Fold DUF5641 domain-containing protein.
Amino acid sequence: MQPRVSIVPERFQVNAFSAFDPSQMQYTFRHAAKRDLPMFSGNPEEWPMFIASFEYTTEEYGYNDVDNLDRLQKALKGKALESVRCLLMHPSNVPAVIRTLRMLYGRPEIIVHSLMNKVRAMPAPKQDRLNTLIDFGVAVQNLCATITATGLDEYMYNVALLHELTERLPPSLKLNWGCHQMSVSRVTLSSFNDWLNHLVQAASLPINHHQIALVEPPLFRYVPVTLHGNGCKVDTFAFLDDGSSATFVEHALVEELGLHGTPHPLCLWWTGNQKREEKNSVRVTLRVSGREKTGKMFKLPNVHTVQSLALPKQSLSAEKLQSTFEHLRGLKLNSYTDIVPRVLIGIDNCHLGNPLTYREGKSHEPVAAKTRLGWIVYGSLQTNIGDGAKGFLNHHSPQTCPCVHSNDDRIDIELKQYLAIDSLDDIVLIADNNLPRNCWPKGRVIEVVRANDGQVRRASVQTTSGIIERPATKIAVLDVYRQN
């Protein structure tokens, strides 16, 4: 590890500002054009320019402590001024002023951390807005340049920071970066900056083939399949998603197959703590096969239904892919146009997506893999092949949320959302876990038992079959009757 050094060139570093005996020429220059310092408010990013200007002009023009005190009083603002205000009363305190400012705002690690926070606060690069990529790349470049200048080389090997930066990239650039990593001997913040700087240069050019290659979305792991159930079959497409903890199918597709599953409300969870409830979800067992006539049929147990997977459209021209990429020639690939998968096969059925054999070309070229459901082509497209994938990934692999409760817990939770029993003659439903909800007994409250806090704890309900006593948590008030 290199020793930490000042970010100011050695010839500009001055320690004793009052020791100058200015020459006649310096004296003339000093009074002919007094050089004001750049403003400094306490922002660590402003420190390198401020201290370089202070030390250079002090040496070059022979400024003494009296001159520098006047210049500092004009230049310091905000937090910087407040931190040394008491020292700005006498010229002899000028060296102490500089030492204090350097300690508070000029230490190399403070400057680096300030730039790191600036990069973190920037908007993430967007697939369809190249200016966001340029701004992000310039910020990373400034950070790396400062790390190098300050000698804090250990930051170049900060794995957590590198992961944080790469996670902000759009999916196609993540894949591009992943391919680039295989071509470097050691992955560091410096190698990430070099790769990103190349993209920034391409994005800054007028529209040309570099820019087309940059924004070309990747091909996702879509495969044509046939779903079977109840004597019916439906041709569709599946997304092989190793990032999903479960397998999902659109509810309308299950209805087309004539299947009826077991009710199982879901709470889906994505990255960034995004959640979505699927209250009408059911759990079914499906059978799936590839489109080939001799395709083997596989069982998909515990598949959850959702209203819509909302996956991006994708097109694939086998002819153009094979004419562009030599390693794909001779494979039995299926062409398709603007398809949207209606099935997402997660890691619980990962054996269906595991490559039995595969072919790969150069970096940034798509990979072909033969799975149990057929051949798939996925990955980056180095050139614009016309009918390649036109959508971009706006999808995060769903997980079943850990807040999912058992059926009994769900009943209790939902009952607590009803109005509490607060009077006799309320019309209520009595929960019975052994009966479908539309068969729960209905009746009228004739007696209640209250606790010390006044809340109803138990109630007696008159039904057509007699009087039933239940805890309040097992009784749901029908608000429509109360209003009437």
About this structure: DSSP finds 15 helices and 20 strands in the chain.
